[in-house]
Amino acid sequence: MAEPLLIVEGLRIAYGGIQAVKGITFHVDPGETVALIGANGAGKTSTLKALARQLDAAGGSVRYQGREISALAPHELVGQGIALVPEGRGVFARLTVTENLEMGAYCRHDKAEIADDLERIFALLPRLKERHGQLAGTLSGGEQQMLAMGRALMSRPRLLLLDEPSMGLAPIMVQKVFEVVQEVASQGMTILLVEQNARLALQVSRRGYVMESGDITLTDAAGTLLDNPRVKAAYLGE
Amino acid sequence: MDIFLQQIINGLVLGSIYALVALGYTMVYGILGLINFAHGEVVMIGALTALTVVKLLAGSGLPGPVIALIGLMAAAPVCMAIGYGIEKIAYRPLRKAPRLAPLITAIGVSIVLQNLAMMVWGRSYHSFPAVLPAEAHEVLGATFTDLQVIIVLVAAGMMAGLLLLINRTRLGRAMRATAENPAIAQLMGVNVNHIISLTFVIGSALAAVAGLMVSANYSIAHYYMGFILGLKAFTAAVLGGIGNLAGAMIGGILLGLIESLGAGYIGDITGGFLGSHYQDVFAFFVLILVLVFRPSGLVGEKVAERA
Ligand SMILES: Nc1ncnc2c1ncn2[C@@H]1O[C@H](COP(=O)(O)OP(=O)(O)OP(=O)(O)O)[C@@H](O)[C@H]1O
Ligand SMILES: [Mg+2]
């Protein structure tokens, strides 16, 4: 069994005096898609932000490829192979689609391969190709989500952190976004997927963690979680 | 003599200088949301540094433009270092403080720089040696000098270069991304602190050029000149739409024209009651009008940002 790509132990996050994440432990193996599901305010976004060094953890350790990364500067993370697609997409509204994608490759210097990857992303997300010269702020929500994912892929990550890719999208667009997630996963990408849409998230994942008010309360194979009566009642609306 | 054409020429020269200084305000505002009120003092230090070097070399037999260029090469690094230092020492520690704190600090930095300059250069006016070609040419009853042509052309060149840098290079893209969303830019691997430092350094380099221009154009420099010049350039930035590069350029040129034409005609307008030394009121009149009627400036419209 290979060493996990990411090992999180006892991670705590606090805002002021309030504990948002209360010492969670989980791991992600190379090549797998892992879902982190939970209700509003459970602490999912906070967890991803701590992994991407967007905020400082109050305690615990985050090891990636066997190395502690919780002391890295925020801008050093992407160079290590970790890319976050943030909640709410965070595209650069005043940059064009192509410029957004080029920003994804900011820390790379292999010009020719960046150009190849750009074509690959356009092939994966044809809607973006049609709109390559358009300002990202004028894209639809679904297109912006695609762009945010494409931008993250442009950094050639080894670990992709996705924060609620389905948020605020029409069902047809959610479907499309998840098709892309599955396509990327099938090419061997390691993905940590945060979602409120638990059913979809578990359907594309191998394993899942359930987070409730700052704690991980349940973990299992994704298929098992889908059949779990508690999960069904709380997150699948059955 | 055609006073209208003459004032247009003067206005373009003045406006080019305002535009270069306004860019410094607008770039910093675009990336930090901060008005760097000390920027005018950076221009002043650039002017005095360049003037001092030009004075030293004035009798050396070197051609005038070469002397001016050496003056600039001395002033630019000094200004860049000061710009870098201001950000690092005065603004960076306040990055997360309420907005009023850096504003007050900016005024404090202004006073410090002014006093430093006073200690180095004294309170007196320094005259800029006439090393640059100043013969007047005549067109249609108006006159202009080679120096004025050089000022306009160099300013235009610098602005074109800046636009290319910002809009066409990887670095410029990172600067625009950082201006829009520093947290996300950081996710892309952008060292936001570097970008912010660089913004101050570039703005200060432009300030050095403007300082040389203004002291050569008026043949004079002194420790207090940065205040009014800074305020006018700030007005130009607001007029164009603060945070917007093209806006700063347009606002600068426009303000130069308004001021020149205003100074040229104020005597006629007021029946001789006010003279051309009231030139400065136009800038502040413009500032008030813009703030009241169009605070976002002429080209300061935001792109629609959809969720
Ligand atoms: N910047 C902040 N300041 C203070 N409290 C915060 C901040 N960000 C998050 N919180 C709090 O931390 C807790 C966890 O928030 P977080 O955004 O991580 O939840 P989440 O699981 O991502 O929720 P959602 O599904 O709604 O996105 C919440 O109680 C929230 O109010
Ligand atoms: Mg969230």
Automatic annotation (TrEMBL), chain A:
<keyword id="KW-1003">Cell membrane</keyword>
<dbReference type="Pfam" id="PF00005">
    <property type="entry name" value="ABC_tran"/>
</dbReference>
<keyword id="KW-0029">Amino-acid transport</keyword>
<dbReference type="InterPro" id="IPR003439">
    <property type="entry name" value="ABC_transporter-like_ATP-bd"/>
</dbReference>
<dbReference type="InterPro" id="IPR003593">
    <property type="entry name" value="AAA+_ATPase"/>
</dbReference>
<keyword id="KW-0813">Transport</keyword>
<dbReference type="InterPro" id="IPR027417">
    <property type="entry name" value="P-loop_NTPase"/>
</dbReference>
<dbReference type="GO" id="GO:0016887">
    <property type="term" value="F:ATP hydrolysis activity"/>
</dbReference>
<dbReference type="InterPro" id="IPR017871">
    <property type="entry name" value="ABC_transporter-like_CS"/>
</dbReference>
<dbReference type="GO" id="GO:0015658">
    <property type="term" value="F:branched-chain amino acid transmembrane transporter activity"/>
</dbReference>
<feature type="domain" description="ABC transporter">
    <location>
        <begin position="6"/>
        <end position="238"/>
    </location>
</feature>
<dbReference type="GO" id="GO:0015807">
    <property type="term" value="P:L-amino acid transport"/>
</dbReference>
<protein>
    <submittedName>
        <fullName>ABC-type branched-chain amino acid transport systems, ATPase component</fullName>
    </submittedName>
</protein>
<keyword id="KW-0547">Nucleotide-binding</keyword>
<comment type="similarity">
    <text>Belongs to the ABC transporter superfamily.</text>
</comment>
<dbReference type="GO" id="GO:0005524">
    <property type="term" value="F:ATP binding"/>
</dbReference>
<keyword id="KW-0067">ATP-binding</keyword>
<dbReference type="InterPro" id="IPR030660">
    <property type="entry name" value="ABC_branched_ATPase_LivF/BraG"/>
</dbReference>
<dbReference type="InterPro" id="IPR052156">
    <property type="entry name" value="BCAA_Transport_ATP-bd_LivF"/>
</dbReference>
<keyword id="KW-0472">Membrane</keyword>
UniProtKB/TrEMBL annotation, chain B:
<protein>
    <submittedName>
        <fullName>Branched-chain amino acid ABC-type transport system, permease component</fullName>
    </submittedName>
</protein>
<comment type="similarity">
    <text>Belongs to the binding-protein-dependent transport system permease family. LivHM subfamily.</text>
</comment>
<keyword id="KW-1133">Transmembrane helix</keyword>
<feature type="transmembrane region" description="Helical">
    <location>
        <begin position="66"/>
        <end position="86"/>
    </location>
</feature>
<dbReference type="GO" id="GO:1903806">
    <property type="term" value="P:L-isoleucine import across plasma membrane"/>
</dbReference>
<dbReference type="GO" id="GO:0015192">
    <property type="term" value="F:L-phenylalanine transmembrane transporter activity"/>
</dbReference>
<feature type="transmembrane region" description="Helical">
    <location>
        <begin position="220"/>
        <end position="239"/>
    </location>
</feature>
<dbReference type="GO" id="GO:0042941">
    <property type="term" value="P:D-alanine transmembrane transport"/>
</dbReference>
<keyword id="KW-0472">Membrane</keyword>
<feature type="transmembrane region" description="Helical">
    <location>
        <begin position="246"/>
        <end position="266"/>
    </location>
</feature>
<dbReference type="GO" id="GO:0005304">
    <property type="term" value="F:L-valine transmembrane transporter activity"/>
</dbReference>
<feature type="transmembrane region" description="Helical">
    <location>
        <begin position="12"/>
        <end position="35"/>
    </location>
</feature>
<dbReference type="GO" id="GO:0015808">
    <property type="term" value="P:L-alanine transport"/>
</dbReference>
<feature type="transmembrane region" description="Helical">
    <location>
        <begin position="281"/>
        <end position="300"/>
    </location>
</feature>
<dbReference type="GO" id="GO:0015188">
    <property type="term" value="F:L-isoleucine transmembrane transporter activity"/>
</dbReference>
<dbReference type="Pfam" id="PF02653">
    <property type="entry name" value="BPD_transp_2"/>
</dbReference>
<keyword id="KW-0029">Amino-acid transport</keyword>
<dbReference type="GO" id="GO:0005886">
    <property type="term" value="C:plasma membrane"/>
</dbReference>
<keyword id="KW-0812">Transmembrane</keyword>
<dbReference type="InterPro" id="IPR001851">
    <property type="entry name" value="ABC_transp_permease"/>
</dbReference>
<keyword id="KW-1003">Cell membrane</keyword>
<keyword id="KW-0997">Cell inner membrane</keyword>
